[in-house]
């Protein structure tokens, strides 16, 4: 009997959600209890080079105003700061603070551990095959970080 088509996206989303939920449980234990998934996406989009609010909005698929509110929250929590753009004094660049970089570094470590858990459950080779299979079906230009905007309609 064939599986119902609607189950595939639900299973993929449930797998994603289980990883993200575990990540945030563990981040809270290591000093980052206020990081939410949307903040993680935003910090990834800011990156090590920084970004303007417009850049951040484009990368996340949200308005400049929504990006500005996200930056306000990241600033209030100590994960990012706005600094003058060296090339244009009228612009502000959002940069990750040492606390923001720490959150991303710890996230990477946690994701590595979670991947190891999945490898233990599925087997190393099967997990590699799964990742390879997903790379085949993901568009060649990669994936977008605009999950929050996509779910918001």
TrEMBL record:
Q: Which GO molecular-function terms appear in the entry? A: DNA-binding transcription factor activity
Q: Please give the CDD domains that the UniProt record associates with this protein.
A: HTH_ARSR
| PROSITE patterns in the record | HTH_MARR_2 (PS50995)
Query: What's one Pfam family here?
Result: MarR_2
Instruction: Name all HTH marR-type domain ranges.
Output: 5-139
Question: Tell me, which GO biological process terms does this entry list?
Answer: response to stress
* Protein name, UniProt field: MarR family transcriptional regulator
Q: Can you name the source organism?
A: Umezawaea endophytica
